[in-house]
Every structure is written in C-alpha cells, then in structure tokens.
Predict the 3D structure of the following.
Amino acid sequence: MIFLQLFVTFFIIGLFNFGGGGAMISLIQTQVVTVREWISEGAFTDIVAISQSTPGPIGINCATYVGYEVGGVAGSAVATLAVVLPSFLIFLALVRIFDKFHTHPVFVGMMKALHPAVAGLIGAAALILMFRFGWADGAPAVSVITDNFSDWRSWLLFAAAFVAVFWGKANPIYVILAGGVAGLLLW
C-alpha cells in the first residue's frame, strides 16, 4: 500500500511542478512532512542537503531519498519513476506541437508569466526549511526550526553561504564544498 501512496504522491508533485527541482522542494516538503507525516522536518532538511550535494536534479534526488526512507530500495524506485513520469508523458505530447507554436505570442507570454511563480516556489522552499509557520493564540506565529538551525554556528554558515552566493557571486558548488568542510571543523 505504501508503494501506491508513494507513486500517487510523487506523480501529483511531478504533474503540478513548474520550474525544476528547486521549485519542487516546497511541494515535496508539504506532502511528506506535513500531510503524510512520513518523515520529520529535520530529516527532510537532511534529505534536501544530500540531494543538493549529489549529482542530478535536486527534485528527483529528493524524491529518491524520500522514497528510500519510506519504502527502501523499491520505494526509492517508485518515487523516482512517479516524479519523472508526468514530465516524460507531457514532453512526449508537447514535442509534436512545439514547432508549430513556440513563437506564438500567447505561448511566449505564458512562459514569461511562469517566471515569478518559479521564483516564489524556490523562495518558499527556503523559508519552509528555516521557519515553522502556524498559529498561536489566534495569531500568526513564526518560529525557527531548531533542528535545522540549532546554534550560532548554523546561522553563521547560513549567513556566509548567502553572502558568498548572493553578493559574492560565488559558484554554489564551491559554497557547498566549503560548507561541508566548515561543518566538519565546527562540529
């Protein structure tokens, strides 16, 4: 039964995702941590970190690792197939008509309209990994996910990585490697 649930969950995520793996993270987090409660927030953050540092698209890597955590090797295969299958099927259908419409103004406009949505989904993924959003005493409440930012060293690494990539225009691969080395030294 878990394999069917994995397949349906990741098929829907794959079907409604626009903007690549980074945009997919918030969708996966919502389904596997909040809705299905298959894994904890801390475990999901670890999965995202591993998915970013391993070769391949982050969304597919994330699905593969979540599938493994939930259903072992078979769960990993099911989740990976399910998240890729919608894109593959849609691509097969669209490739036949793309040449006819790729310069049409309506098509071009639709593609441009998706850019802000993709940026928003990636931003939401970052916020979801850092903060817990909810309600306390009838008012909106935000708290830091302490599993992910447990002490000053975590915040220091986050700030350094942000500054290096955003303002320093550093290569993200080097920032990931430096973060790994810094993590080993600090902890």
